[in-house]
């Protein structure tokens, strides 16, 4: 009897499993918006320099009273290349001659300008407050928005390393609840951060707890991420203040701690830690919730121990991951590196798109809901196409579509809003579909004995890509197109690294290095037989 059959003795997919699955989905729905929170809490409104003649109510005079706001703005703020008021400079002195068109043409000298030394005036019709308006993160400080997102992603990477070790030491349940508690408290506290530095520290700390909460991802839970994106779009549309948005997505996490206490510790972890009695106790508890009344009689320590003896033996003889890199006939280092690169590239393009909605247009609420809906649809479509076109073809096709759509979108003018949004939607959907295909391909490609370790390394590369994605937006100071060109090129390079990987469609799952080698020999034999058949028929 296998471990899975032992779980069937505890009730299989019963009330407890359904409760656990629903709880995880709700938690994921509320935690995933914390990734893209800065789309709304750090939205950049229209702004201009503060000027005394316009914005100081104490200034009065017959001339200023007779002039309109547009006229005062014209003589106080220079125009940019699009004939709109500049956002980061003002005239040192009012340029009264600009009120007369004829003199504007005759005047050849450029008036002296200066930065916004007295601060900015923001358009608060869309967002009454964001962290941008709170701490003036515009002009020379505009890149600090990307720094906040990078810090959160860096925290996520470090947290995956730290809490993975702690969960091996103290158990999955206690670490999961601790991360949930911290994320709720820290992002609640971030809503009241008195300075930008403290806000950055709190967001980095919150990021430390994020990855472990999402390490339980299956297809249904991955779908809850997309629903979480749509939820945030609707929530941000109803709540425009960044303080309130932070509280709205953070305080419910503290409430979810109450039902989360009913979760059970991982039975496999208890077995590895030689806590068989506690593991049997947890199994009986699950069986009781699932309606198994005779659980204490059937799930005895002797019965469980005899059932999982093979699992106990496998734990004691578990091979080192380094054996994988010394087995060139089975799976060489280059294949592993290609897998790592694909996950890295996929993360760079995905987070580059979903973290920068404001670059697509002004209606970021609609874009957030649209991106959530398209990622959900793309994952379903990807799972359907995997059955027909294979793992490699799936990833190559969708990665190519994503890269091309990003690059084409980069060079489209801002006026073509409908086409830009359509291409961005196609891009994020294709990236999501390729990522879903890779997840399945990775499971089938890696031997079971190394899957956990190598899966952790792949996840580390994904988090590294998530860190790089917002960091690339700091290059906007050099070129408005440069970050998007990099996103597109990296995505197209992912197509090349998939080509050397073997196809795993309709192949048995591999558990050992020997299985990998046998599958490789079998695939070569099938190809040789197909070639021989074609030659004979010809």
TrEMBL record:
Where does the Major facilitator superfamily (MFS) profile domain lie?
A: 66-506
Q: Where are the transmembrane segments?
A: 178-206, 212-232, 364-384, 396-413, 484-501
Q: Which Pfam families match?
A: Sugar_tr
Query: What subcellular compartments does it reside in?
Result: Membrane
Q: What are the GO MF terms of this UniProt record?
A: transmembrane transporter activity
- Which InterPro entries does the annotation name? MFS_dom, MFS_sugar_transport-like, MFS_trans_sf
What keywords sit in the KW lines? Membrane, Transmembrane, Transmembrane helix
Question: How is this protein positioned relative to the membrane?
Answer: Multi-pass membrane protein
Query: Cellular component terms, GO, for this chain's entry?
Result: membrane
Write the protein's name.
Major facilitator superfamily (MFS) profile domain-containing protein
Please tell me the species this chain comes from. Marmota marmota marmota
């Amino acid at each position: 009897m296998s471990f899975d059959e032992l779980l069937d003795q505890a009730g299989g997919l019963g009330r407890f499993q359904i409760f656990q699955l629903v709880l995880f989905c709700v938690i994921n729905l509320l935690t995933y918006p914390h990734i893209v929170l800065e789309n709304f809490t750090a939205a950049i409104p229209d702004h201009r320099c503060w000027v005394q003649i316009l914005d100081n109510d104490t200034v009065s005079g017959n001339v200023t009273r007779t002039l309109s706001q547009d006229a005062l703005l014209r003589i106080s703020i220079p125009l940019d290349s699009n004939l709109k008021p500049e956002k980061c400079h003002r005239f040192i002195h009012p340029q009264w001659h600009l009120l007369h068109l004829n003199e504007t043409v005759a005047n050849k000298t450029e008036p002296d300008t200066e930065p916004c030394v007295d601060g900015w005036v923001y358009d608060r019709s869309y967002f009454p407050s964001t962290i941008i308006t709170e701490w003036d993160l515009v002009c020379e400080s505009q890149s600090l928005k990307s720094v906040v997102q990078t810090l959160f992603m860096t925290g996520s990477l470090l947290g995956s390393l730290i809490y993975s070790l702690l969960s091996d030491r103290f158990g999955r349940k206690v670490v999961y609840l601790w991360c949930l508690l911290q994320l709720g408290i820290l992002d609640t506290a971030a809503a009241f951060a008195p300075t930008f530095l403290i806000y950055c520290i709190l967001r980095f700390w919150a990021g430390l707890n994020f990855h472990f909460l999402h390490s339980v991802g299956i297809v249904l839970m991955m779908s809850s991420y997309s629903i979480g994106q749509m939820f945030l779009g609707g929530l941000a549309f109803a709540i425009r203040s960044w303080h309130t948005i932070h509280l709205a997505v953070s305080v419910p996490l503290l409430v979810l701690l109450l039902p989360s206490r009913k979760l059970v510790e991982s039975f496999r972890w208890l077995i590895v830690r030689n806590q068989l009695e506690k593991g049997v106790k947890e199994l009986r508890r699950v069986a009781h919730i699932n309606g198994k009344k005779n659980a204490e009689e059937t799930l005895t320590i002797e019965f469980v121990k005899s059932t999982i003896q093979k699992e106990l033996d496998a734990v004691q003889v578990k091979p080192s991951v380094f054996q994988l890199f010394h087995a060139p006939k089975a799976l060489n280092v280059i294949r592993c590196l290609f897998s790592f690169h694909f996950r890295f590239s996929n993360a760079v393009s995905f987070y580059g798109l979903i973290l920068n909605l404001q670059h697509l247009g002004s209606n970021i609420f609609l874009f957030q809901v649209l991106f959530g809906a398209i990622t959900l649809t793309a994952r379903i479509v990807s799972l359907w196409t995997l059955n027909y076109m294979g793992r490699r073809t799936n990833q190559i096709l969708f990665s190519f579509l994503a890269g091309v759509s990003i690059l084409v979108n980069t060079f489209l003018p801002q006026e073509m809003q409908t086409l830009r949004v359509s291409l961005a939607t196609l891009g994020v959907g294709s990236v999501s579909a390729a990522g879903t295909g890779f997840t399945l391909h990775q499971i089938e490609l890696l031997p079971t004995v190394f899957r956990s370790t190598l899966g952790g390394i792949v996840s580390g590369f994904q988090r590294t890509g998530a860190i790089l994605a917002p960091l690339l937006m700091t290059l906007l100071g050099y070129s408005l197109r440069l970050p998007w060109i990099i996103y597109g090129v990296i995505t197209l390079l992912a197509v090349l690294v998939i080509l050397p990987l073997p196809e795993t469609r309709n192949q048995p799952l591999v558990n050992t290095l020997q299985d990998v080698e046998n599958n490789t020999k079998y695939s070569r034999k099938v190809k040789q037989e197909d070639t021989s058949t074609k030659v004979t028929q010809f």
